[in-house]
């Protein structure tokens, strides 16, 4: 749900922001800024907790969190809600690792 920041509904960047807040990490609110909030990492070197983004760094239109095993969790759309999907479902453009 566009603009939703929880706890009963999230958009993609609101979910990522809320997840990181639970571990004491403050992230920017929107996808564009989250896509540059850490160190860029190769999609071949992903680790659980990396933020995946779709679109360009600084102009991303979607974000999710890599959870390992080739899967990510994200708020996809209002009808599917928060889901876990394989990377093959929708290949991200890039990833950042937040220290």
Task: Report on this structure.
It is a single chain. Strands 1-6-2-3-4-5 form a 6-stranded antiparallel β-sheet. It has one domain (12-97): endopeptidase fold (from Nostoc punctiforme) (Alpha-Beta Complex), CATH 3.90.1720. The protein is 14% helix and 31% strand. The protein is an alpha+beta fold and 99 residues long. The protein starts with 11 loop residues before the first helix and ends with a strand. It contains 2 helices and 6 strands; from the N terminus they run H-H-E-E-E-E-E-E. It has helices spanning 12-21, 31-34, and strands at residues 39-41, 51-54, 62-68, 71-77, 81-86, 94-97.
Short description:
Belongs to the peptidase C40 family. GO terms for molecular function: cysteine-type peptidase activity. The chain contains two helices and six strands.
Features:
cysteine-type peptidase activity, NLP_P60_dom, 14% helix, Papain-like_cys_pep_sf, alpha+beta, thiol protease, hydrolase, globular
Number of separate strands: 6
Q: How are the strands of the biggest sheet laid out side by side? A: 1-6-2-3-4-5
SS-derived structural category: alpha+beta
User: What is the residue-averaged pLDDT?
Assistant: 93
Fraction of residues in β-strands: 25-35%
Counting H and I runs of at least 4 residues, what is the number of helices? 2
Tell me the count of domains. Answer: 1
Fraction in helix = 10-25%
Q: Look at the structure and name the CATH superfamily.
A: endopeptidase domain like (from Nostoc punctiforme)
């Amino acid at each position: 749900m566009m603009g939703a920041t929880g706890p009963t509904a999230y958009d993609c960047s609101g979910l990522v922001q809320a997840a990181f807040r639970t571990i004491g990490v403050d992230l920017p609110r929107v996808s564009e800024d989250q896509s540059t909030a850490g160190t860029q990492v190769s999609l071949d070197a992903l680790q659980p907790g990396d933020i995946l983004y779709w679109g360009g760094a600084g102009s991303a239109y979607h974000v999710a969190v890599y959870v390992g095993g080739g899967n990510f969790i994200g708020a996809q759309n209002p009808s599917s809600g928060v889901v876990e999907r394989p990377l093959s479902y929708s290949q991200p453009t890039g990833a950042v690792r937040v220290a």
